[in-house]
Write a structure and sequence with these properties.
292 residues, alpha/beta, Rossmann fold, eight-stranded mixed sheet, 11 helices, 8 strands
Amino acid sequence: MTGAQRVLTSERIGQLFVESERGRDRLEYTEYGAGDAWVVLLPGLLMPRRMHDHLARALAGAGAHVVTLDPLGHGRSDKPDDPVAYSVTEFAEQVVALLDHLGAHQAVVGGTSLGANVALEVAAIAPDRVRGLVVEMPVLDNALEVAIVAFAPLLLTARVAPLAVSGLRALTRAVPRGVVPWWVGIGLDTVDHRPGPLAAYVHGLFFGRTAPPLKERSRIAAPMLVVGHPRDPLHPAADAELLAEQLPNATFERAGSILEWRLRPERLDLVATRFVLDCWKHRDNRRRVRKA
């Protein structure tokens, strides 16, 4: 399949509920395509799952069964006020719950930024559920200080100036998504958060586990496609390159810029599609078991 070809695929919105000591939380997802070549795509920090619509359709058009998930605190999933609800490990456990819900024994798990870290965490806590990994701009050792500087003001604003967060939310909600460019709509959705859940979200990520440590990462045996960007202080290419060097089955792909996969996605869509299809080339015969 070339980058210019388009194949229409089915799209379905679904939901699942995850239980915890806090109670019951609702997660929403979208399925593209059908079959047993499962792929799960995870969004970046505070972003909605539809940021991966284009890639999901490209993969589904090539024969994959793709699911984009809004983890807790993202998009149309629940947004509790409890910081304990938000951590990379919690998000990874939600991916495993999604696979159980779908009856998928394994999936290629991919994500961007925070989603990349969650994909790595899924491979660390449930390696038998991961067929492969697509990791775009992970936030690892070289990026933590910049991430703290970038997002600490967000936490402070949500705590001490909640009216500013609520006011911004009211302004962005008034903008019809159909009249603005697609990525502008994604940006508007990213800031559509109430101050309480927003503060809990950032607090939970700051003080929780942000990614598997090196000792755990080095044990990841699944094939991995690592995509890094030049001139991106929050997601240094050095982190992505080092990750690819640390793991025996990882391949590094350098993007032209942080905007390439956003504005000119054809090349990287094709790279990711080839990787995913290769992960599923030799399928096993394990049965799928869908929960009632």
